[in-house]
Amino acid sequence: MTTAPADPMIGRLIDGRYQVRSRIARGGMATVYLATDLRLERRVAIKIMHGHLADDNTFKTRFVQEARSAARLAHPNVVNVFDQGQDADMAYLVMEYLPGITLRDLLKDYRKLTPEQTVDIMDAVLAGLAAAHKAGIVHRDLKPENVLLADDGRIKLGDFGLARAASANTATGQALLGTIAYLSPELVTRGVADARSDLYAIGIMMYEMLTGEQPYVGEAPMQIAYQHANDTVPTPSSKNPAVPVELDELVLWATARDPEERPADARVMLERLREVEPALRGVQPITQATAVLTDASPPTAETRVLEPATAALLAPPATATALADDDEPGEDTAALTAASDRRKRRGYWLLTFVLLLAGLAAGTGWYFGAGPGALATVPTVVGLAPDAAEAALVDEGFRVEPVERNDPDVPAGQVAGTDPAGGGQAQRGSTVTMFISLGPRIIDVPDVLGSPEAEARAALDAAGLEVASDVQQQFSEDVDAGAVLALVDADGAALPAEYPEGAPITIVVSAGEVPSVVGLSQADAEAKLGEAQLSLNVVGEDFDNSGEFAAGTVMSAEPTTDPVRPGDAIDVVISKGQDLVAVPNVVGMKMPEAIAALEGAGFTVAHSFPDLFLPAVTVNSQEPAGDTQAVRGSEVKLTGTLTL
Question: Where is this region: Disordered (predicted)?
Answer without folding.
Answer: 403-427
